[in-house]
Amino acid sequence: MSERVYVVLGAGPGLGLAVARRFAEEGYVAALATRTTDDAERLAATLRDEGHQAEGVGVDLTDPDDITAVVAGIGERHGRIDVLHFNPSAWREKDPLHLTVAELLEDVAFGAGALLPAVQAARPYLSAGARVLVTGSAAADKPSAAAASLGVQKAAVRNLVTSLDATLALDGIRAVAVQINGVLGKEGPFAPPPIAAAMWTAVSRADDDWTPHVPYDG
Fold it and tell me: Signal peptide: which range, if any (predicted)?
């Protein structure tokens, strides 16, 4: 129960797996949560095959009760959570003239609101030095009109991180949104490995150097 634990919600085979790998390389047990347990286990198996400790679990990020159960379950199994990484976002190709209020709220609930039950469930297992990490996006400042809800999600979750950091800092726990100011690619500065390295650097900072927002410009 002394091994540090990294949890990623909304893991995938690209950035989510790369960040989990980066933390696993630092000795963390990686818990990857995706929509289905089978998908999550395939990602975890990739890390285990590389010699890391990893587990996969299914989670419905549209269901606050399921988020609570999954995150609390990980905390109970390991006795701690050291990094909680919130990675999901909803992509809906609708401009503001066609996006409905219901669709906007659904997407914001998924890409921002789901962070609330995740942190609340993790809180009993977070101790001083623990971190909440959120994948941000340039869409928060430069939204695409073709997918209007994404920018709202990213602006909302960045704002929420500011409030979380101020609240958790009282107990030595910090929150940060790493804003990726570029388009994800397979190679180059916006490929998953260098972004994962930047996320590791962001959460490794001392409290004296802390800011709740870190831009990644490649």
Answer: none
Select from 60, 63, 7 the least CA-distant residue to 35: 60
Provide the token pair at 28: 């963390």
* pLDDT at site 51: 97
**Alpha-carbon distance 198 to 178, whole Å?**
8
* 3-state DSSP assignment of residue 14: coil
Domain 5-216: assigned CATH number: 3.40.50.720
Q: Mean pLDDT for each 10-residue chunk of the chain (218 residues)? A: 90 97 98 97 98 98 98 98 97 97 98 98 98 97 96 98 98 98 93 97 95 96
Locus of tokens 């958790």:
168
